[in-house]
Inverse folding.
């Protein structure tokens, strides 16, 4: 008898409903094929809910989410609402209040033609970025003084704790070892931001316990350069929250764009959250053109996290096959395929694999 999983689902804003619908169809199909069961609870939080009720994301909703095995988020953000309000309340709320201290972002090129870099092949782009997810410039310590005047002062503190850095670095080394990866690169900016040498020191210290893994160290500016020029040099990357945010959008581009990039917000052993890294694309809302592959990839990561490794691998192989064969010709909203058609293709190919 397979297991039962309960998933908290927050489709969110813009294209969220449509892409999550396809993600959940794939999840249910994987459950049937691999003999487990999935129960979902939907949460309405996002722009519409806020405009109707004035409620952002109350602690009671978070507490309910916490009672599930995992959380799936579609996309959060809406131009009708003050910049960042929803994102901080919902995405930030889930990340910080559930202490999801890792943001795991695989960067993998599934088909050569999707890569904007000349001459790079799938075997050249296959890395795992471990982004710290609960510290740095995201902690919200700081503020504004005399806002809107010539004397305005704006402060945002970059907070790094020994505990926060060490658990991110340890997770990266453990994950690298478990995945049979060879090399791990620390990305920081300890030359200009001297307190960041906390990262450099902890990386060396913890790395000493993993002599089988090659260690490398880059500053963030150089890392963006090398990731474009020589992506094949990257295997596992461990990086602070804000630099990881930036570096992984670059990473998404070299794997074909935001239409394929997914992430896991993880606290090992606890309820964790999975989401595509793209935004809510309000202009495509309700048009059935958004590409759901990044959400389907988020479902894949969620299944992997839940221990349904075969189901996760099946979804990844399917995505790879559909992109390589060009049955899904592109990753943008103008790929020529509708949102549900892409879902149908994934379901069909999953079924073929299972036969
Ligand atoms: C991401 C997003 C978020 C971040 C935003 C929406 C707050 O860009 O998940 O990368 O900056 O972390
Ligand atoms: Mn981002």
């Amino acid at each position: 008898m397979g297991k039962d999983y309960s998933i908290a689902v927050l489709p969110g804003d813009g294209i969220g409903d449509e892409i999550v619908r396809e993600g959940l169809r794939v999840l249910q199909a994987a459950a049937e094929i691999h003999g487990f069961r999935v129960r979902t609870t939907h949460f309405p939080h996002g722009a519409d809910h806020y405009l109707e009720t004035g409620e952002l994301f109350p602690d009671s909703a978070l507490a309910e989410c916490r009672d599930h095995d995992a959380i799936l988020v579609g996309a959060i953000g809406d131009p009708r609402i003050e910049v960042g309000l929803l994102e901080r309340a919902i995405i930030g709320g889930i990340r910080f209040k559930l202490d999801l201290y890792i943001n795991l972002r695989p960067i993998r090129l599934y088909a050569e033609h999707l890569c904007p870099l000349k001459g790079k092949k799938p075997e050249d782009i296959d890395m795992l970025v471990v982004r710290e997810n609960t510290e740095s410039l995201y902690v919200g310590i700081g503020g504004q003084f005399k806002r809107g005047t010539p004397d305005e002062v704006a402060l945002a503190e970059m907070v790094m704790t020994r505990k926060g850095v060490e658990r991110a670095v340890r997770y990266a080394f453990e994950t690298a070892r478990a995945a049979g990866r060879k090399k791990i690169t620390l990305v920081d900016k300890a030359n200009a931001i001297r307190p960041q040498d906390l990262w450099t020191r902890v990386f060396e210290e913890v790395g000493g316990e993993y002599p089988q893994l090659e260690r490398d160290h880059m500053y963030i500016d150089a890392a963006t350069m090398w990731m474009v020029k020589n992506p094949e040099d990257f295997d596992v990357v461990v990086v602070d929250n804000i630099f990881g945010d930036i570096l992984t959008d670059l990473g998404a581009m070299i794997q074909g764009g935001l239409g394929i990039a997914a992430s896991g917000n993880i606290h090992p052993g606890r309820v964790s959250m999975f989401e595509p890294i793209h935004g809510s694309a309000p202009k495509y809302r309700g048009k059935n053109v958004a590409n759901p592959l990044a959400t389907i990839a988020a479902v894949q990561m969620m299944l992997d996290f839940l221990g349904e490794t075969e189901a996760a691998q099946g979804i990844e192989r399917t995505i790879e096959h559909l992109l390589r064969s060009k049955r899904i010709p592109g990753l943008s909203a103008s790929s020529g395929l509708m949102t549900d058609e892409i879902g149908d293709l994934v379901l069909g190919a999953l079924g073929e694999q299972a036969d």
Summary: The mean pLDDT is 97.
